[in-house]
Design goal:
heterodimer; A: 5 helices; B: about 190 residues; mainly alpha; Arc Repressor Mutant, subunit A; 2 domains; about 65% helix
Chain lengths: ~120, ~190
């Protein structure tokens, strides 16, 4: 089969006419779309203060942790002593249930990662 | 099909401006002018009349939502076809065409018989059906090229690709088709698949 013949066959595709109600159906969908309320914008004004507070708390906690580590490092001489420095932090973290928070974070990340991986493998 | 032949760009621009000014009814002019080409383009992607109308309706809805994004530096038809093409291609990737795989078609016992087995009409249908079994990028390119009356630049604009890429894909697509057609034309189960 030569190229001209292939061109002829593929160019001569059957033409179809729109059904009689097509325009009305599209316009009904368009009118519905037009009458729908606009999408609710993300409430940045409400979220922003919370985000700022969270960021400040995070920075303060990090600063405190670094200060404690520096202080501990200057005192500690042996590996055992250095571990002793971390122990108060660990016990405080345990007091606030850090292990559960960590577990919950891992479960959340896993539940996000798994469907994303599944969706990616479909494509 | 000469998709863009009979439409004055000024009509589109006037209607778009009216719609953007709040006159939703003016969109009907756009639908009436472009429903034929958009449905036919969709039909070439799916070969199912009902599905083609659904896809065309979705294309019009997206056009309505994104009307303000038409920059007027290109013709309205170019923008509309590009939008519809993206939608149809995505739909085609999401739901693969139900057809016979070329790899499932057995080789003919005697290749010399392969041109005499079917009537011309059946053969033409088999060739069009074979386009559906091409890898997506070649299939999209072939559909667009022949839909636009074998206009490489129109197909390139619709797919937002350079003309060189379109030419290369056309060449490769035809090559694959020609390579596979002898076995396809000799396969009796093709009639059943249609």
């Amino acid at each position: 089969m030569n190229r001209d013949e292939l061109d002829r066959i593929l160019s001569a595709e059957q033409e179809i006419l729109p059904s009689s109600g097509f325009t009305a159906s599209v316009m009904a969908a368009v009118r519905e779309e037009a009458s729908a309320p606009p999408p609710i914008p993300f409430p940045w004004k409400r979220v922003l203060p919370g985000l700022v507070i969270a960021a400040v708390v995070l920075v303060v906690l990090l600063a405190q942790a670094i200060a404690q580590l520096k202080e501990g490092a200057s005192v500690a001489q042996s590996p055992w002593a250095s571990l002793q420095t971390y122990l108060p932090i660990l016990s405080v973290a345990q007091h606030f249930g850090a292990q559960w928070i960590l577990f919950a974070l891992m479960v959340t990340l896993g539940s996000l990662w798994f469907p994303l991986r599944l969706a990616a493998s479909d494509h | 099909m000469e998709a863009e032949a009979d439409v004055a760009p000024i009509d589109d621009q006037a209607d778009v401006e009216k719609v953007l000014a709040g006159n939703v009814a003016a969109f009907e002019g756009i639908v009436r002018r472009w429903q034929g080409p958009l449905i036919n383009l969709a039909y070439r992607f799916c070969h199912d009349r009902g599905h083609a109308e659904e896809m065309a309706q979705e294309a019009f809805l997206r056009a309505y939502r994104g009307l303000a994004q038409w920059r007027k530096d290109a013709a309205f038809s170019t923008w509309l076809f590009s939008l519809a093409t993206n939608l149809y291609c995505a739909e085609l990737r999401r739901i693969p065409a139900p057809s016979v795989s070329l790899d499932d078609v057995p080789e003919p016992a005697d290749p010399r018989d392969s041109d005499g087995g079917l009537e011309v009409e059946d053969r033409d249908r088999a060739v069009r059906r074979a386009v559906f079994n091409l890898p997506t990028k070649y299939r999209e390119t072939l559909i667009l090229f022949y839909f636009h009356g074998m206009d490489v630049s129109a197909a390139a604009r619709s797919l937002s690709l350079p003309e060189g890429t379109i030419k290369a894909r056309l060449s490769r697509g035809r090559e694959i088709l020609r390579g596979k057609l002898p076995s396809l034309l000799a396969a009796p189960q093709l009639k059943e698949a249609q």
